[in-house]
User: Which sequence fits this backbone?
């Protein structure tokens, strides 16, 4: 079985793009499993900040099948994320768990499912979701293969998620610094205009924010705009 590393490690390194990495993974997984006979659909569920979503899929139907599950708030892929164990559903018509979800997707043609967790060390959870149009679409050998695939993918997914978290943290810091800079400049302008202390200038700014029910940074930006048409620049080196 061709490894995840063979196909997408270079992509991840070059793009630092979590979405591209995961989309490549779904296509490779679906193609690999489809050779067993019949089309296989694949999606990847990622839970970050306690919210689940399909971050990649090999086609629109896989995406929709995942999203229906989120609407119900329960199902094989969500359970795989939560319990960190494999759920193999040989025949969704005979499966007693998640009856509402399976009734909802029956018209799609799906007859069996396989949900395999991805191991993350970031506090997030994830799972690969496979859908087959055949009953018993995933035998024991197929389950073991996907498990090995997931184990291998987990290493790269951990790296990708950490990259995404790093970018999130960096962007949050940039926004915080930009907000702080804007407020500090506005306070300076108010001090100059009113011949008052820094503390008093901040009180004036906060009062305007509260009275108008507008964010403090927005009020500060308005104060700055009244004195210059030049944009505020924040210098930040990560």
Assistant:
């Amino acid at each position: 079985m061709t490894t995840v590393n063979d196909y997408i490690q270079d992509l991840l390194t070059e793009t630092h793009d979590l979405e591209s990495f995961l989309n490549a993974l779904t296509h490779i997984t679906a193609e690999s499993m489809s050779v067993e006979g019949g089309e296989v659909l694949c999606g990847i569920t990622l839970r970050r900040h306690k919210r689940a979503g399909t971050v990649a899929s090999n086609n629109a139907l896989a995406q929709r099948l995942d999203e229906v599950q989120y609407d119900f708030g329960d199902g094989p892929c969500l359970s795989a994320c939560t319990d960190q164990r494999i759920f193999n559903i040989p025949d969704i018509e005979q499966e007693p768990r998640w009856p509402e979800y399976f009734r909802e997707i029956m018209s799609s043609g799906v007859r069996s499912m396989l949900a395999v967790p991805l191991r993350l060390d970031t506090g997030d959870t994830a799972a690969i979701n496979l859908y087959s149009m055949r009953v018993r679409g995933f035998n024991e050998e197929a389950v073991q293969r996907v498990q090995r695939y997931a184990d291998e993918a987990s290493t790269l997914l951990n790296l990708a998620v950490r990259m995404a978290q790093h970018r999130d943290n960096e962007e949050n810091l940039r926004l915080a610094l930009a907000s702080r800079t804007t407020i500090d400049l506005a306070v300076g302008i108010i001090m100059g205009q009113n011949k008052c202390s820094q503390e008093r200038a901040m009180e004036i700014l906060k009062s305007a924010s509260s009275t108008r029910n507008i964010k403090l940074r927005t009020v500060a930006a308005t104060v700055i705009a009244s004195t210059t048409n030049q944009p505020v620049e924040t210098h930040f080196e990560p």
User: Anything to note?
Assistant: The chain has two domains: 4-167, 170-226. Confidence is low (pLDDT under 50) at residues 233-238.
